[in-house]
């Protein structure tokens, strides 16, 4: 079995190091900043050093924690754990100097830590500046440890009390660089791990079926890390797949059920009633290249390349894109924002069986404003069934009851909190009360009911908890008058609520620590591996082009794109119009925060600069 290598820095009297010495399978390297001569005079230091050496530990003096790789040959640089208890610049150094010390220490630690290693930093009560500190200092008066660590690519993965009394023989020392103890009551041990790096996404070509042809198209940049992730495929352990499988299995016990397993194209053509052009991702350019003879021999004769158009301005009165003659644009396509058109197409096919519950599922794509429940992509599950007129209400109630039972069964294995699922009439909601999923669905066609879900004891349906909708439509089959029931569920929201995932972006993380919490697809209460991530605020103000309506959805989409979904909030904080010229100025506040990666102040500053450049170029605003 591999030996765990542990590095201790800034030891005052080596009493902490001595308490770790002798642990099975652990090799301790204990260091301090001072020389051996300076340290040996401190109380009990000589005894601790002797114990360490007798126990097989290494003891190294005059080690600068900001230059760690200088003290170890390359083959000895890989440590599994680094401890730095109560770091301090010495004497009366203030918070700024100590932040600088931590910043240089974290950068240095990155050079000598294994990929899955941990960095433990113990700080006195209040120093860290996280909500774990009680009482919590004002941010500017703290060491801002999470933000400082992010600059070196580390995230805070755990924090717990530093209980000095439980460490055998431990005695803190070094108050103002003297052999004096200091107060460690309320001290916290902060445990940091490496973050996955911020990704720089390259243009991506995706292939899909369209009108019995294979077509390729350029993926919108904001979706590059989300297209073709395979969350619903057979070998997936993703919570979204588990929720889908559970619903399918349970509903098949109550209804004749047919999965629509043929390939649903990612691209859709034509109008979706009520949906504005700015809410969809357009793929509208005509073929750019003709397949070669070699490609034809490979069966790719029908392969066509389409490009993505991010921001469209030339629209007709209905809000749809105008296609002008002679511009080589043949047809208008867009990434499917809903599976409803496919569900409607099913009832036109001869294979449609009244009384059978037909099921479709897959990712859908929507441009939307940045809010906590707004997802530019999520997995939709649609149920379609034709029933006799007059029985649709009882059928809907039976369907929702079975969905309730299925979700209650899943949730009971995860958490002891109460789960409420309610069927509410659409007329009981104001438009402003709907989350983004429900609001978009309301544009497609009339909705009869919302399926609402929350996990608490209040029993009320709050904004953000709408996880599904139900609508009906008349249908004639021969002499029979039937009613078709359409039910749509947002599988991502269901998985989030059941597993206690507070941020939709976590579902799409590339960090293996997410899926590792759901072995073999078993749902569990999610435990975040990135605690108290730092947030950064930037403002941007600009003049809106004369005579043009400002496209706020495009504004938010650019923010998503340039930041890699690191913008969590955009607020309009000021609006001004010149009385003389009529020119309008807007000022927005952007809040940047990651849920799974280290995000530094410098990285955010670069994102903000790029954002300013992009809105100037694409939205024709004049920056102030």
TrEMBL record:
Any idea of its EC number?
A: 6.1.1.20
In its UniProt entry, what is this protein called? phenylalanine--tRNA ligase
| Family statement drawn from the similarity comment of this UniProt entry | Belongs to the class-II aminoacyl-tRNA synthetase family.
Q: Which GO terms describe its cellular component?
A: mitochondrial matrix
Biological process, per Gene Ontology: rRNA base methylation; translation
What's an example of a GO molecular-function annotation for this chain?
Answer: ATP binding
What is the phylogenetic placement of the source species in the record?
Eukaryota, Metazoa, Chordata, Craniata, Vertebrata
Record's catalysed reaction(s): tRNA(Phe) + L-phenylalanine + ATP = L-phenylalanyl-tRNA(Phe) + AMP + diphosphate + H(+)
Q: Which SUPFAM superfamilies match?
A: Anticodon-binding domain of PheRS
Keywords attached to this entry: Aminoacyl-tRNA synthetase, ATP-binding, Ligase, Mitochondrion, Nucleotide-binding, Protein biosynthesis, Transit peptide
Q: Report the main location listed first in the record.
A: mitochondrion
- The residues covered by the FDX-ACB domain are 531-624
| Protein location | Mitochondrion matrix
